[in-house]
From TrEMBL:
Organism for this UniProt entry: candidate division WOR-3 bacterium
NCBIfam families linked: thi_PPkinase
Any Pfam family: TPK_catalytic
Superkingdom, taxonomy of origin: Bacteria
The name this protein goes by in its record: Thiamine diphosphokinase
Keyword match RNA-binding: no
Stored PANTHER family: THIAMINE PYROPHOSPHOKINASE (PTHR41299)
Enzyme class: transferase
Any one Gene Ontology molecular-function term assigned to this protein's record: ATP binding
Keywords: ATP-binding, Kinase, Nucleotide-binding, Transferase
Amino acid sequence: MNNDREILIVGNGEDLCSKGTIKNFENIVAADGGYNNIPKSVKPLCVIGDFDSINEKDLPERIEKIKFSQRKDFTDIELAIVYSIRKGYKNIFITGISGSRKDHFFTSLMLLKKYEKYNIHLLTSKEEIFILKPLTIYKFLNMKDKRVSFFSITPKSEKIVSKGFEYEYKNRTLYFDSPIGVSNRIIKDKVLFTFKKGKILCFLEI
């Protein structure tokens, strides 16, 4: 992705977006052992973390290393998010967020909420995960037949309108304790989704 306002953070997890997707990013940060998930032909801006999952001596000298104590209040992924924000990146993508450790996956969802005022997307091998904000029209283009799920992460999200989905909404309300928004399907080439109140977590098949 040839955009100096976008950055990809690569974590140490096993569930990654494709190598082709990683290579498409101009700006990449490795969160600790996430360096091992980056193709060797790609040079990250830096490796950041406490270096508990990679030996600092194994890293090429030409790569910047930002090391923190293992006794810290932030995960390596969050350190990389803060680094990206301070560097002025507006669109932050994160992959390698989980593997066998499902608590790491949940932690990444919590970070989406914590930094919700920024445009942060999680990328796995099968889906893109991000927060939808009210009073915004979201368009999903050329995603026909893809699965998509919507979950309210506020007590309720109100006046939802959607078009081009198998299950369309007209002034619908989603509640935090209801899974009714799971496993919808895009059935047209051009679809839209918008709502007036609340916040919604979206899982989009890729």
